[in-house]
Specification:
With about 400 residues, this protein is α/β, with parallel strands linked by helices. Helix content is about 25%, strand content about 20%. The chain is built from ten helices and 16 strands. The chain has helices at about 20-25, 30-40, 45, 80-90, 115-125, 140-155, 205-215, 255-270, 285-290, 295-300; strands at about 15-20, 50-55, 90-100, 130, 160-165, 185, 225-230, 275, 310-315, 315-320, 325-335, 340-345, 355-360, 365-370, 375-380, 385-390. The strands form three sheets. It has an eight-stranded parallel beta sheet. The protein has a six-stranded antiparallel beta sheet with strand order 9-10-11-16-13-14, with helices on one face. Helix 4 (about 80-90) links the parallel strand 2 and strand 3. The radius of gyration is 21 Å and the shape is globular. Bound molecules: beta-D-galactopyranose.
């Protein structure tokens, strides 16, 4: 199966905000308006975060008599008015449904009613659909279910980014593009922890990094179709009530080093950057991290390559990502003590054929030159990121 649909959308990894991590099923129209305002006021819109996505629980418990989705009482002005508000803020509007009979929280979803719902989304002014994997699948496989919504979205008179949320269960990087997807979750739900307890729900940041290194998904990734390791957890954590039942050693916000590493890896992976935090309580550190121009340029590089792991030895990791000009190299320290981590341009995905390279530290902006050796001192659980350009 090939997809010959035009791919103007998603030429670079989509950026925006999603309601799920911060508001879960309590989301209201007012929360979405506030989030849109906050994207503008914090400068996040200016930095490129443009989609405001309402996740699960926006819909009423019953469809209308013809099977159309209806907004819940928490969205009193309806979805079209909310989309207008978001558009008037210079942003784009996203909505959620599921490729089953119900959403993950038990609300009506779209299986078997794809065309009807895609028409509703288009009429309401939806620019982005997150399409989950819950509910009864009625015996239909993932490609068939996600393909039905892909075809429905292609048939309506509006360009809608199609975000497949199949949790990586049936290797969606092998078929996501062919069913019209612009991004597809490659992994299970991410929670605001460095490592998750295997007996509890969700994956930690280090768990997802390991999984992204292990799966054979990088080749499918590029302009128009992206592997999605889930929302950014920067700004989330115990303070938002998410981790109140956890053991004491993980009942703490991610450290600054862990947050830096989280963002650095997502940018090196050229991941979609969907912020999961409540934007009204974002710290200055988190805001500055999320708007770091040097890191965002790596994520949004027009070549669209996913970075890959060059080596892992004990507590040291080196990853690299080819860029339109030069490459980005990430040095990660998994250990508990600061250490120097080194590599050479010939071992990283840096364009060959030069004997001088310009190097820039993406955190500090400091620049220097090298004949090819690269070394950075990295604090525990932190990551250094450099941009390396042949002279
Ligand atoms: C999960 C999905 C989450 C969120 C949630 C809503 O399946 O992975 O990102 O959308 O459902 O119920």
């Amino acid at each position: 199966m090939t997809d010959d649909r035009p791919r103007q959308l998603g030429r670079t990894p989509p950026m925006g905000w999603n309601s799920w991590n911060a508001f879960s099923c309590d989301v209201t129209e007012a929360d979405i308006r506030t989030a849109a305002d906050a994207l503008v006021d914090t400068g996040l819109r200016e930095a490129g975060y443009e989609y405001v996505v309402v996740d699960d629980c926006w819909m009423a418990g019953e469809t209308d008599s013809e099977g159309r989705l209806q907004p819940s009482a928490d969205f009193p002005n309806g979805i079209a008015a909310l989309a207008d508000y978001v558009h008037d803020s210079g942003l784009k509007f996203g909505l959620y449904s599921s490729a089953g009979t119900e959403t993950c929280q038990g609300y009506p979803a779209s299986l078997g009613r794809e065309r009807l719902h895609a028409e509703q989304f288009a009429e309401w002014g939806v620019d982005y659909l997150k399409y989950d994997n819950c509910g009864d699948h009625r015996g239909r496989d993932a490609i068939d279910r996600y393909g039905a919504m892909g075809d429905a979205l292609a048939s309506v008179d509006r360009e809608i980014v199609y975000s497949i949320c199949e949790w990586g269960e049936h290797a969606p990087w092998r078929w996501g593009r062919n069913v019209g997807g612009h991004l597809w979750r490659a992994t299970d739900d991410l929670v605001a922890k460095w490592r998750a307890d295997p007996d509890e729900f969700g994956l930690g940041i280090a768990d997802v990094i390991n999984r992204m290194a292990a799966i054979d998904a990088a080749a499918a990734h590029g302009p128009g179709g992206w592997n999605d390791p889930d929302m950014l957890q920067i700004g989330n954590g115990p303070a938002s009530g998410q981790s109140e039942h956890e053991p004491v050693d993980v009942q703490r916000p991610l450290t600054e080093a862990e947050r830096r590493s989280h963002f650095a890896f997502w940018c090196l992976l050229a991941a979609p950057l969907m912020i999961g935090a409540d934007l009204t309580s974002l710290s200055a550190f988190d805001r500055d991290l999320l708007t770091n121009e040097r890191l965002l340029a790596i994520d949004q590089d027009p070549l669209g390559m996913q970075g890959t792991r060059d080596r892992r030895e004990g507590d040291e990791e080196v990853w690299s990502k080819r860029l339109q000009e030069g490459a980005a190299v990430l040095f990660h320290n998994r250990g508990d003590d600061a250490r120097e981590i080194s590599t050479h341009v010939t071992d990283a995905d840096v364009p060959a054929g030069s004997d001088r390279y310009r190097v820039q530290d993406c955190w500090t902006g400091n620049e220097w030159e090298t004949d090819g050796s690269l070394a950075m001192t990295v604090e525990p659980r932190d990551s250094a990121v450099i941009r390396v350009t042949p002279r």
